[in-house]
Amino acid sequence: MKQIFIFHTLAVLATSSFADTFHLNFRKQVETQPESGRYHTITESGKWDASKTAVVICDMWDDHYCRNAARRVSEMAPRMNRTIAKARKQGALIIHCPSGCMDKYANTPQRRLAQNAPKVDAPIELQNWCYLDPASEPPMPVATDQPCDDEGKLRDRVRFYSEQIETLDIAEDDAITDSAEAYYLMKEKGIENVIIMGVHTNMCVLGRPFGIRQLVRAGQNVVLMRDMTDTMYNPREEPFVNHFTGNDLVFSHIERHWCPTITSADILPDESESFRFPGDKRKHIAIVMAEKEYKTNETLPKFAIEELSKDFKISLVYGDVENPNHLPGVEAIRDADVVLLSVRRRNLTTNQLNLFRDHVAAGKPIIGIRTASHAFHQRKPEAAPDGLDQWRDFDQTILGGNYHGHLSSRITTFAQAVGKEGAHPILAGIETRRFQTYGSLYEVKPLADAAKPLLMGSAYNMKETEPVAWTHTSPSGGKVFYTSLGHPYDFTVTQFRTLLRNAIYWVVDEEKPEVKDPKKDEC
Questions:
Q1: C-alpha R_g of the chain
Q2: Residue 363 in 3-state DSSP?
Q3: Positions of the chain with pLDDT lower than 70, given as ranges
Q4: What is the DSSP pairing of strand 366-369 with strand 93-97?
Q5: Cα angle 215-218-220, degrees, rounded to a multiple of 5
Q6: 119 DSSP 8-state letter
Q7: 216: closest CA among 137, 124, 138, 87?
Q8: What angle do CA 330, 335, 340 make, to 5 degrees?
Q9: Which residues touch 267 (CB under 8 Å, ≥6 apart)?
């Protein structure tokens, strides 16, 4: 317990300095329209008075029956300690909540501080545990039965912890509790705002008496520090995604139904990057959807979770229902490794369109499907409307295409790989026999000289063929893949799914996953 007593100097510095202001970036998710099941991810800047803010550290124990869970706690603890030290110095109250370890801290001033807070009535009855209420909250996106992701023989599910991990310093004016005392102390000190961090987000961070559900219902302004937490999730269980994608799914659940999230970078501006677990090797794909004709706002998210969630961090950006020339949350592409574009004839503001220009100028890869060939301009060759912008030569200069029309959607269409089977990594697992596709055949010839066709398309009873999938290189050297396929029924065709999945892995230079057997499709 040495960490409790050796930080008197730090505590004096904290209490002697005037209270500061936290400048925070609150991320939340707002449904695109009622009952759509799709959400805009919106980030808004705001300020909190540090003197009216508490930082709650949930169950950062010194060990855990799940060895991987314990390892991840130790990995984030140094960054967490720097975060709480800065928050403490700015005037926030730090409340350490290592549940079940109160005997370890008996008679310490930090423990007595919490115990001595006068009990007050809360708007709700604060319970030892607040379970999910299906009447007000949908099921969690991952399991909550403490699934462990250790390999080999698992430890028994018994208590391996005895105290908070020693990496986290406990200063003189901090508090220690694992009960509703946390709320009583907040009320005594005029605390209105709460930053919650620790483990595990799908369990204790939500359910404890000092957790999100109860504090939100008690009327506190609550945020989750999403990069200073972890989820108890085993990728071998539903929904069968990467562990860190499991984290993201839980963050989305909280942002939709409980409270916004922030990151430690908001408190530590000198460490501009948010914390990332060493084991999180995922590339970041931003999928931008703004078209009505082909319903990619339904097909692409499902495709992403099924085909990409083991190896990619996924951001979904939807067009605004009320304003077709606005993409809420499109700022996600700033740190994306690759952008998958499914947009049709949108004139964005210059600020939003510049995000795509900057992505391409940085030499980052881009993938376009179907209407991406005419993503950022209208049919008529005229100036963009006032206040809006256009990128009329995006198809020619970036995608390497030349869209100028399409055949009737009533004509049956087919696609066939160019050259020998597997001649290009994107064609791995796609046989050279033709397969049926859906939707009209786009007229795109001639392609740019540097474009390399991978699939040629044809229409029933017509000799003329058109490229339907090709690679290109942007002027800044980024890899580019485009396909004019993307009709909703195309997503039921194994060859198309394999093509798109392979292309995504190819543009980011990742080893592609096991391909499916195209013989399962009978076309």
A1: 26
A2: coil
A3: 1-19, 512-523
A4: unpaired
A5: 60
A6: P
A7: 124
A8: 60
A9: 22, 83, 86, 87, 90
Put simply, whether the predicted model's pTM sits higher than 0.90 gets the answer yes
Structure token pair of residue 285: 């794909």
3-state secondary structure of 279: coil
What is the Cα–Cα distance from 291 to 327, expressed in whole angstroms?
11
Torsion from C-alpha of 181, 183, 184, 189, nearest 10 degrees: 120
First to last CA, the chain: 69
Q: What pLDDT digit, counting tens, does each position of 121-175 carry?
A: 999 999 999 999 999 999 999 988 878 999 999 999 999 999 999 999 999 999 9
The residue with tokens 């049956």 is: 412
8 A C-beta contact, residue 87 and residue 195? yes
Report the interhelical angle of 296-307 vs 494-507 (nearest 10°): 70
Distance CA 339, CA 433 (A): 30
According to the 3-state scheme, what is the secondary structure of 163-214? CECCCCCCCCCCEECCCCHHHHHHHHCCCCEEEEEECCCCCHHHHCCCCHHH
Contact (CB, 8 A) for 243 and 235: yes
H or E element, residue 437: strand 435-437
Q: Copy the structure tokens of residue 219.
A: 């009327």
Pairwise CA distance, residues 62 & 165, whole Å: 4
Q: Is the peptide bond before 138 cis (omega within 30 degrees of 0)?
A: no
* Residue 126 · residue 183 · CB < 8 Å: yes
Residue 476 in 3-state DSSP?
coil
pLDDT per residue over 1-10, tens digit each? 444 433 333 3
Number of other residues whose CB lies within 10 A of the CB of residue 85: 20
Residue in this structure with the two tokens 């926030």, named with its chain if needed: 92
Task: Using the structure block, give the residue that is written with the tokens 């005029």.
Answer: 190
